[in-house]
Amino acid sequence: MGRANKSDIPDAPAPAVVLVRPQLGENIGMAARAMLNCGLGELRLVAPRDGWPNPAAQRASSGADSVLESARVFESVADAVGDMTRVIATTARARELTQRVVNPRRAAEELRQWIAAGERGAVLFGPERTGLQNDDLVHADTVLSIPLNPHFSSLNMAQAVLLVAYEWSQAGAVPDETLVTNTARPATKAELTNLFLHLERELDESGFLRVPEKRPDMVRNIRAMLQRARPTEQEVNTFHGIIAYLATKRRRG
What we know:
By secondary structure, the chain is of the alpha/beta class. It has helices at residues 25-37, 55-60, 65-69, 77-80, 104-116, 134-137, 157-170, 189-206, 215-229, 233-252, and strands at residues 16-20, 43-46, 72-74, 86-90, 101-102, 121-125, 142-144. It is 44% helix and 11% strand.
């Protein structure tokens, strides 16, 4: 294939691509090239190993300079998806968490529906060597698994980005299902994180999370359960109120 022409980032609303702890600048560049091929332009990087900007990424991007120049760097996954209401995480392996799993085509169709409804979406891609960890996955409400040869399913980061971005480019834009929230908007991931911290603080004080070796798994499972619920901003506020009321009753009791 020939070298792509340099192009501006598309104006149409689209999901962000979040590369978590990427190791090789070349893979970042090739991911940017794949994104622009398929009409995606928002790239977010979480703690890139070799820092940013990276000359190797620019060389490998084959002209997708606009994507690289507008890329934003974050210290954590929580920071990178804090303004999102929908997050899909890619993984090749089964994890201990109970999470909804879809294939790339279904993920692309749902992303189209969510974004058409005014929501903000992102897709997480894990580091080359290990993939996403459980602490990364709990920021997602949906998991994406690419069905490949079960005896050899290894993809590098840029290949995975291309597969998902291509499905996005081919997906129809007409939603076949919507969530009616009236005037309430879906909660952002930052708002959910604040709720989790509030809940976990009270659970610690009440003694519910009293076994140190079990606490990390219990916290992850609680977060994954609430992520699947897809609460609205108002529902998150209501949950804060419930937690505060029960905590006050417990302290007075």
